Amino acid sequence: MLDYKTIITQRYALHMSGRQIADTLGVSKSGVNDFLKAFETCETLSYPLPKGITNYGIYSQVYGKTDPVCADSGFVMPDYSSVDKELTGRKNMTLIFLWGRYKNQCIADEAKFYSYRQFCSRYADWIQSHSESLHLNAVAGEKLEVDFAGKTFEVIDSLTGKALTIVVFVSVLPYSQYIYAEGMLSTKESDWICVNNHMLEFFGGVTPLVVCDNCKQAVTANKDWIEPELNKDYAEWAEHNGTVIMPAKVRRPRYKSSVENSVGILEKGFFHELEDLQFFSIEDFNRELWIRLDRLNRRTLAGKDYSRHDRWLEEKNTLLPLPSVQYQYTERKEAKVSSDFHVRFDNAYYSVPYKYAHKSVLIMATTGTVTITSRSGEVLCEWPRAHSKGLWQTNPDHLPAGYKGTLEWNGPYFRQKAAAVGPYTSQVIEGVLSSRKYEVQTYRQCVGILGYAKKYNKKTLEECCRQAVESGRVSYTFIRNSIPGVAAETMDTADTARINEEKNQGAFLRSAEASNLNRLLARSRNLIKQEGGCTDDNR
After folding, report:
1. Nearest-CA neighbor of 496 among 504, 488, 506, 486?
2. I want to staple 270 with a disulfide (CB 3.0 to 4.6 A). Which of 292, 363, 416, 464 is the partner?
């Protein structure tokens, strides 16, 4: 059953579209729009709604039906009024017992009955539609509620001129109603973790519970509410901070009523001011947002002699202390150590102790560090994270002594291979080997250069290396870009045929005669004659 009161309020008070309302409530857009059309044509009900009206009352007047859950023809509708009285009035009464009684009566009457799951789901809908609200007294320091606002904003990228969407994260301490909000250009897991860190820093502590919406950044699946499947990184964030994530029931906004109310206050209040401003960076937007948010938190509440900020100063003393170090979002990857004793991660290279060459290792990277461990969990090394492509980070202690006496790549190995090609190839390999602080950092380039002798031939590679030496551009990049042109000039017919044969290896090759047009037409005529048809020649 839809939350009709919220739909009407958001439509006529906040002027939200059907799509925006549907996204906020987690329901279908067509269902919201169909209800709004029916509401607009209703002669007995209009906005503002009568005081005290329930969702059940709205449904009855708009659709002229007595019960919104009677749509499934053929099934006997349980008497949920009696079910509710039994459940709340009799000690130790259970829903499964009442469902069994309902099922047995339907069987006796030879009627169709709902399954236990449907019985409970419809009872929950009945409870929601027959009660105005559920009031829970907030306890100081007990929980935090977090959500996204339905209203979005735009920022103009100062470099590209492109309009980017800003989503606003909102959180609140229910006891003090102290609000934190922050604009985000991305809602990826890393940004979600970051904004939650900012939230705890703003509130100055942690609560035992964090109640969140069922967004993908927080919850993977929430089928039964009791044991939801949490996003792995968000679960680790909670464990690091000593709190527990408790997602709200799906499509049950009352389970996080404080943050829903806070979102409404922001959207009805200074969000209209922000909407009239133009921003060219997320920093500018958040600066204006936080100025207005501070005014709101320090404003005296209606009918009270204190503000949200005053109550927060009281509640702050009940919060759990923050950990000494903030939780950092961690990227994870499995990689294989190459023969140069390095692993590649995010377009950079990190050395690993040489005894792990050709073995798989695990990489865990935060925004500041890259930690490499064995598959058993032993920490092998830790590096500052590289923030530029192609950067090599090498610990000389990770390399075998002199790079000799091993079966791995090394300088003598590549020099020997180059000498077998020619003197210019030797000069190029020598130049590449000495181009970096640690020789081992060049081994991949040497493999690439010498590999062209097999792809083309030694003569072609030697000629390309001669051009590299004479032009003073001894590098893998020059060889890679130049050798196709050199091959076209130096390779003979036999070599070209060999390369083409390798390219076509495993393919089915057809002669040109097989695609001759006259041959194909003659074949078609023969097939028609065999089937008893006729051709253009004998018409």
Report:
1. 488
2. 292
